Amino acid sequence: MKNCTMEKHLNIKDLNKVFNDPIHGHIELHPLLVKIIDTPQFQRLRNIKQLGGGYFVFPGASHNRFEHSIGVGHLAGELAKTLKLKQPELDINERDVLCVQIAGLCHDLGHGPFSHVFDGMFNPEADPEHKDWKHEDASLEMFDHLVVANSLAQEMERYGLILPPDLTFIKEMIKPLKSDDAEWPYEGRDENKSFLYEIVSNKQNGIDVDKFDYFARDCHHLGIRNNFDHQRFIMFARVCDVNGRKHICSRDKEVANLYDMFHTRNSLHRRAYQHRVTKSVEIMIKDALLKADQYILTKGSGGTTFCLSKAKTDMEAYTKLTDQMVERILHPCSCSNEFTPSPLEEARMILQRIMSRDLYQFMGETKLKKEDQEEIKQMKDSLENELVKVIPKDNFEIIVVTLDYGMKNKDPINTTYFYTKANPTEAFKIPREQVSKLLPVCFAEKILRVYCKNSASLRDAKFCFQSWCHENDFLTEDRDRATP
């Protein structure tokens, strides 16, 4: 009888769930996090590649936003719990920890098909009026939609959250402000818990658990060595007061480890994210989506239909946008009224070229000397004016790739605080001269690249590009480059 009573009060759904993750091992997640994971809005992340077109270049890069988001939720909780355990005076409560975990879990809900291809490449051309729209904006809307559509508000309150303040706090962590103003800009938590806003997305210096997970996860799947130890960072993390605000600081001896982190970021961009063949594939995916934009319609709230570029305005419709858009273009259903076969043919042909490895050809690249956006635009216009003399405008694409340490041309360590073993409560900055004489002098560079969409014009276009570089005193490789 006693056992029956115990079983009656034991609800299996209220137990933490164990996930076996290839990066972090066996991790336990709070039942509220599991309820969020088990929603259509979160499950759609299974069908969005973490590295966009990178999977077409790196065979191991098959991972998706789904597992990355779970990893970030886990690491967010680990960092918050470590600070709570080591510094009870911070008054971190269980509500704080759970909110931080939810923010980490839901930070990428707003990604569109092929991740950054959608908001960084497709959207600015398909919807110029909203060219500055980013996936973080959609993450906030999708989070609201997820809570309402799955009636999670009551569940959140049952697990101890206070609404609406905690919902506000979660969304503020998903898309924090970059502000050094004297006036506290947030509503979810008071200024005495300012450090919580640095865990998921750190606008202070870019050191956050989002990067910790994707560094480890992307390196694992790409076959690239990861030199940064995020577990060590979490172990040595400590909160100190800096000019009235509390910031997450690291031990002084960890400064070299942090430089390794930013070097890893730069290396991943150089070797994988901005790989010249990866960008070729992503330009082709972008072109195919543009061709199909007005002809693939998705039903949203109230039965309203939206084209690809407008679906982001309705979360019910946006939930249906994943990488599977490619399959809908390649293999349209002839019985569906959503498709007009003739207009989709151009998009289908571009995607078939990807499948048969007939990619846009890399014509060349050169490092730009200017950082100013207006001057870069003038350079692109100048090159375009020369190229159209030998090749039609719709047969080439000029892009600018940025490689940096995450804070444009600034050293991120300049905005990072440290403490010593002897004085763990006093925060200070470490001048680069005290770290090493081998540190980079420049922390960002921009590379102008040109791709040819029709190989018949490649030779003349490549010669034109090289001549333009020579006339404008830009360095370029004159020898033939291997084609994608």
Report on the structure:
This protein is an alpha+beta fold and 484 residues long. It has a 3-stranded mixed sheet with strand order 3-4-9, with no helix packed on it. A 3-stranded antiparallel sheet has the order 7-10-8, with helices on both faces. The chain is globular, with a radius of gyration of 24 Å.
Quickly list its features.
10 strands; disordered N terminus; alpha+beta; three-stranded antiparallel beta sheet; 484 residues; three-stranded mixed beta sheet; 11% strand; 18 helices; globular
State the gist of this model.
This protein has 484 residues and is of the alpha+beta class.
**Broad shape:** globular
Question: Could you list the spans in which at least 5 consecutive residues all have pLDDT below 50?
Answer: 1-10, 479-484
Radius of gyration: 24 Å
For the sheet with most strands, the description reads: 3 strands, mixed
- Strand sequence of the main sheet, in spatial order? 3-4-9
What number is the mean pLDDT? 92
How is this fold's topology laid out?
Layout: H1 2-9, E1 17-21, E2 25-29, H2 31-37, H3 40-43, H4 65-86, H5 94-106, H6 116-126, H7 135-149, H8 153-158, H9 165-174, H10 209-222, H11 230-236, E3 238-242, E4 245-251, H12 255-273, H13 276-292, E5 298-299, E6 305-306, H14 315-318, H15 325-330, H16 341-355, E7 361-367, H17 373-387, E8 396-404, E9 418-419, E10 444-452, H18 458-471
Parallel strand pairs: 4-9
Antiparallel strand pairs: 1-2, 3-4, 5-6, 7-10, 8-10
Helix pairs in contact: 4-5, 4-10, 5-9, 6-13, 10-12, 13-16
